[in-house]
Amino acid sequence: MQVREAPLPAVADAYMGYMRLHITEELAWMRGSPLYAMLTPTGAAAEDDELQRNILKDFLLAASRLAMTRAQSAANALADRIEELAVHATFDCISTVEVMMREHLDLLFEQHLSRLVACCVYGTTRKHNVVVSIKRVNQAVSSVSPHLAPEDLQSDSSAAAASNPADAPLTNVRQLYNEVFLPSMRQHLQAPVHSDTSVSQKPGAVKKVSRLPLRSLTAKDINIRKQAHASTRAVAFR
Hints:
- This protein is mostly helical.
- It has a domain at 64-194 and 204-236: Cyclin-like (Cyclin A, domain 1), CATH 1.10.472.10.
- Helices cover 59% and strands 0% of the residues.
- Helix 3 runs antiparallel to helix 5 and helix 3 (50-81) crosses helix 6.
- The longest helix has 32 residues, at 50-81.
- The radius of gyration is 21 Å and the shape is globular.
């Protein structure tokens, strides 16, 4: 007699999918998880344990693909709304995510994957000297991250720090970017940007003004940049 496995009910299948996603984007990176123990330098998978090495390899591949997909989708959402991003054919967050996953995996410890994706997207816009607010980046990342609201990326880290100051993770993306992400990724973000000469600049597009700092821009920085653009356009149309 042939026995066939009955498919899972739709609700159970959806729940399993949610849990796989939740593990990949957050739970696995938390202290105390079995994968966290393998990801840290002191708890790396044993060289003679092929099963552990394969589990770790498959997990990192899945996490990298998820981060790259979200970063590129969020970048595309921003480019659809911000003309200056659409002008730059080199605007691509995947390389920033690749560097983070390859060289700075520790940035993800005790964090939600999407917070670091937001840092990658914002850092890439800063690399291209494009002015965009972190709030807008958070909204774009949240729109491609199920079960994650913009408030989860902009929450105040001080409340968590007050209850557990030693180990409290930074939950505010602006603070996380300035204090943790940027110091680690500065070398990559400062690398020269090679423009794509095959793509002509849109009519009326403005040339870049002098490079602003890679740190998170304040409202004052953004207003100064807008004034500089307005002055440049006024001169161009005289």
